[in-house]
Each structure stands twice: as structure tokens, then as C-alpha cells.
User: Fold Leucine-rich repeats and immunoglobulin-like domains 2 from Sphaeramia orbicularis.
Amino acid sequence: MNHNELTVLPFLGDVSSNITSLVHNRISELSMHQLQPYVSLESLDLTSNSISELKVGSFPSMQLKYLNLSNNKISVLEPGCFENISSSLLVLKLNRNRLAVLPSKVFKLPQLQFLEMKRNKIKIVDSLTFKGMDSLKSLKMQRNGITKLMDGAFFGLNSIEELELEHNNLTEVNKGWLYGLRMLRILRVSQNAVSIIRPDAWEFCQKLEELDLSFNYLTRLEETAFVGLGLLESLNLGENSISHLGEEVFNGLGSLRTLILQRNKIKSITKKAFEGLEELEHLILNTSSLLCDCHMQWLGPWLTDRPFQHSVSAICAHPASLFGRNVLSISPDEFVCDDFPKPQITSHPETSVALRGNNVTLSCVASSSSDSPMTTAWRKDGEVLYDAELIYTTVLHLLNVNFTDEGRYQCVVSNHFGSNYSNRAKLTVNGRTLISKFGTKTCAVTFCPVFPAVSRKNMLFLGLLDVLYGA
Assistant:
């Protein structure tokens, strides 16, 4: 019945087959009445029709296991529309439709194992959207233009093993939207706009075996980027803008077998960058931007001792005497540090303690033998402070500090030849101390009276502290 001009489901009498295909017709709606003769069906393919919505009662009670509604015009899924097939449905395909909103509780499909919603118009996935799908193994949502995954977006997918989110507009990976994915083995987030991997992102999906973050906007990998992924076997970071591989950046990835770093603009790789990757079998890396000074002397011998010579192309960009040469063809005594074109941190920010409400200044000083302009960014706990108040780029002012300002601060100085990172300075913020006849109290609530002003209101406040903490 494929490729006809059918506008409604035809009545075919007693259906002996458990498979019906009505692909490429003009069917515009589904109703319980039309489907009643087909209650014994196990597979129904309605790809490329004109169905625009699924209402409550679209399906009679039937034993349907496979339902393909791809390439229709569906923009509305009413909660309860799948209720009569929820006890049997295993595979649901809704690709190439017009879905923009996924209502809460629309997917109460406890037996469903495979769900596809590729090429729709979903921009935001709300919390608990997929709750009630305890058996789902695979979810595919490529090419939707998703910009935001709310905390708990996939909570309830207790059995999911594969999540595919390629070709969307996600900007970060965090534990909020990964919450509850304890059985996840494969995560694909390539072709997005990811620039941040939060330090604790993988807390709830530590069984991950394959992670694809290629074609994103990553520029730097923190030491915490992959903490908790001890079972990871394949990591794809190709086609990003990573310029530096720091010490122990892949620390904890003891099971990793494949690491893809192709088409980044890597300028420096520290000697301990690949430390701990004892199971690594495939390293794919190509860069022609390396700063080949004395700190890069180790790379050639390291590659020679491993089976990576044919999959790694490491070409020098500086100094001029080594420009265009592969590190494998350079003798150790040619890697020298006659100059330091990459910024060198000569003064690091210092750990400090401040009272709440005071101002704090952190500074770092960098120098370079190159005339390439230097820029500075400040990070707090590994995250860039985009709205920081800077003076001459290397001084950070924190005004009227609060407890939320506590953390570890670091400056990153960059130029054309690479970046360098200061030591981390820890900032501790203490509450103001109140003194009264009852003794010394430390402010432990949202507001603090300014010492030493003592008024009747302040004495009442002190009395409240006595009640809370004892005199």
C-alpha cells in the first residue's frame, strides 16, 4: 500500500500479516476507529504522510511493537496519545516532524527501548520529560537545534545506554542534564557549541565507554575535564580549538584505547599530558602549530616507543629554524629554550583570606620574548570569569566579596605561541565577628550587622544567635 494517494487508513478486511506499511501516502490523521481492524498488528510504518497531531485515543488497545511516524507534519503530541499501546511498544520513530515542545508525561511508555526524534524543532528539553521510560536503551535527538537541557532532562531513563545529541546548539556539559544516566555507555555530542565541561560533569554517568565531543568550541581542557570516566574506551576531541594539553589532563582514563585529537591547533603538550593512558592503542593527532622549545624534547622519543608514528603528525611552527619539521625528525639537542615566545608567568596570584564585604585584588605578571600581543583571562574553579573587573588585564578586582566568591583563582596569559597558567590562589571569605557581653559570635546568616555598631536591634540579633547556637 506504499506510494498511493490514500488519505485515510483503508479497510482491508481481516489482516493476516502482523506488518503493515503505508509509506508515502496522504493520510492526515490517526483514529481509534480506523485502526480498530488492525489490533493484531505488531509493526506499522506510516512514514511520509501528512499526519499533524497525535491525540488521546489515536490508537485502540493493540499489541503494536514497532511504530514509524517519521517524515510527517506532527507538531502536537497530546499527553496520553500513546496510552493504549504503552504496554507493548518497543520502537518509536518520530524523525523529520515539526515537534517543538515535548509535554510532560507524554512518553509514559514503560516497555519502549528505542526512541528517535531526529530533525524536529525542539529547542529546550525540560526536566523529567522522559520519566516513565524505564526500559529505554537508545535515544536519538540529532539536528533539533537544542540550546538547553534542563537539570534532570533525562531523569528516569534508568536503562539508557546510548544518547545521541549531534548537530544541536548545546554550549556546555554539566551534571545537571546528565543526572540519572548511570547506565549510559555511549554519548555523542559532536557538532554542537560546547565550550565548557564542568568539573563534576560525569558524576552520574561513570559507566561511559564512548564519548564524542568533536566539532565543538573547546579551547582548553581542565585537569577535571574527565574525572570519573575510568571505564571510557574511546574519546573523540577532534575538530575543536584546543591549543594546550596540560599535565594529567587525561588522568584517570586508565581504560582509554582510542584518543582522537585531530584538527586542533595544539601548540604545546606537557610531558605528563598522556600519563596514565596505559591501555592506549590509537592516538590520532595532527598539528602544525607546535612550539618546539626544550619543553617539547620528550615528544619524539615518546612517539617512537609507541605505535603512533603513522597516526600522529606533530609539526613545529617555532622557532624559525625548526619551522615545518616533524618532531620525529629532530634530534634532542635541537630542542632549545633560547627564547620564550610563549608567555611566562613571573608573578603568581597569592592565596588570601578576606572579610565579607571587603575588596580583594589578585594579580599576576607575565613576560614574553615575542612581540605577539598578550591577553589575560581569569578563571575561578576552572571557569572563565567573563564579567570580571580587570585592570591592565593582569589585575582582578573582586568588590564587596561574599561567600559565593570563595574558590581557587587562576590567571591564563596567552599569545600567538600558546598559553600559560598561573598557580591557583585560594580565596577564603570569613563572616564579620560580633562582640557582646554574651561573648564572640560569627555571623552565620544572610545579613551581618556592621561591627562595632551596637544598637537595640543588634542586641536583639545577638539574642537570636544565642537561641540558635547557645549563649
The domain at 1-98 is CATH 3.80.10.10 (Leucine-rich repeat, LRR (right-handed beta-alpha superhelix)). The radius of gyration is 29 Å. Confidence is low (pLDDT under 50) at residues 434-471. Helices lie at 32-35, 299-304, 456-469.
